[in-house]
Amino acid sequence: MTTGEDNRFSIVEASFGPRIVIFESQDVVEACRRNGLEGFSSLVRPFEYIDRVSVRHSNYSTTVKDSLRLSFFSAGKLSEEGKKILDSDGQRERHDQDGWIKDSLIQNVFNRKSIDRWNSNMRAISSEHLTSNPTSPSANQQTSFKLKRENEWIGSELLSSDYTEEYPRPSTPWYNGFLSSLIEHRPLVQFDSTSHPIAALVVVSTNHPEPLNEFAKLYEASGKDGSGWPSLDWFESGKILRYYLLVHEINEEPDGGRPAAIDLLESLKRAYGLNCGLFCMNSENTDWLKAKRSLERDRDPGNVRSDDQPKKFDYWFKFNQNNQQHQLVDLNDEDVIGKRFGEFISEEDVLSLRLLLREFTLQSLIPHIERCVQQWNETLAASRKGITGRLFSVGRKYFSKASAAGSGSSTSLIPQSPTAYNPITQSYPHQSQEAQTRRLADYSFMLGDYKFASQMYDYVRKDARDDKAWSYCSSAIQMIGICTLLQSSSNQRSKLNVDLQSYLFDHLSIASSVGHLRMVMIYYEMSKAIGNPQLMSSSLIRASKTVHSFILTYLVV
Question: Known InterPro entries for this protein (predicted)?
Fold first, then answer.
């Protein structure tokens, strides 16, 4: 996914990459299901990492990120999350925790199929070890000891023993499954705008009887305050980029139907601008593809290959082999039996999809994020750094306290202005200065501008502390800690002597939430990446005393 030094921190890219919500027509869903895939989000999942992305920071300097992850999810999932928030009874953290443990961790990771596969793999590794080292004493004991040491950072006597291995060592498969499930857990929360979608893909198939009318329908749903967004005062839908994608299934016509699809794309651009694209799929075994390959061979005199098709690779298998919670297709369906994921998708389709996603990222998504950062930087950061911003903060703090003191207890929970913190919903409205500052920090973080992002997170921390917005305050502190690790140089990282517990645990944070456990494991993986896992010793001990003790005891400690 990434190369070079930043590869060690790929956990950060996986955890905080831009989220892209997909509004798709039913024709697109059916085209994907013919390939054993749930929808367009499942189709693009294997290609979500975009390598070598040039970005511009808040100070107008340019750098190249080794990799950027695009986190795709369906509009249906977003709608479900919004409904859960509206229907919550104040116990959302508990429901979120129970749902993740039951539906994701147990059903999708620690199921019988996964356990049997892991046991089979471990027996194969153990057998190979015994074969290559027949005279090694207590080979099984050494293997068992190694598995324990892989995730054991609390017992100092183990770290100081004579048993040494090259670091880092590979983690166990059950730990990798747990970590992957945890990283993918990104519910919509008010205090973290990295959990909010940054862009929307509006996807319609040429098979639709009226594709332009379908685009217009999805345009309304994905527009500002449209029906496709949650009705939450802290959710900002006006700054979400919309990209219009036309999906064309290659047909049996000599030209595959591409000219008509291209004409439709031009009509789409005239209606919605340049943020439009075309993706042709399901071309495997079509006459159009056979003619295309034959023409390419004729153009290359040195190519003596026969008419054999290039070997296909199943890009989707590893993402769907354990997906029991969201059954992609009915495995008893006669149309599905014997088929694999991507049955009708050719290697040419895959290449086209890769190019499309890269074009979307470089020409639409990154410029959109950069424009937002520059705009918010001018309106927010500049005013905060000036005397006006400081006077405003002091005045707001003073008068809000005076107002609260003069009002009765029955009205003290009502926000004093439309942009004030609402203690009932525990959120800032999306148009408030605090919410915009948090978005500025998160967008800068995604661009790799960690120094500037850290400054903005600190502003959020101070404002949230004054307003007693504890979830915002704790989240900002956690992000400041990640920025601190990422800003340190290569030489500094292995010599860091900082207690990460101060960033992860304070009297304000909810230590038993799944979101907090997720942050603990991100910190843990980062400390392992810099070769200094002892930084997390006290934090892991403390985390193991929470409601997640049974998880950490068997997987980490």
Answer: TRAPP_III_complex_Trs85
Which residue, 377, 325, 318, is CA-closest to 110? 325
Answer yes or no: pTM beyond 0.85: no
Q: Cα(200)–Cα(78) distance, rounded to whole angstroms?
A: 11
- What does the block give as tokens for 349? 């389709």
Q: Where are the domains of the chain?
A: 14-96+188-365, 371-395+425-555
Contact assessment for residue 337 and residue 33, using Cβ atoms and an 8 Å cutoff: no
pLDDT digit string, tens, across residues 526-544: 888 877 777 887 888 777 7
Please say whether the beta carbons of 514 and 100 come within 8 A: yes
Are the C-beta atoms of 482 and 12 separated by less than 8 Å? yes
Q: Which two tokens stand for residue 385?
A: 């750094």
Distance CA 144, CA 133 (A): 15
DSSP conformation class of 195:
G
Which residue, among 65, 69, 71, 47, has the nearest Cα to 5 in the 3D structure?
A: 65
What is the pLDDT, as a whole number, of residue 533?
A: 79
Q: What percent of the chain has pLDDT over 90?
A: 42
* 189 has a pLDDT exceeding 70: yes
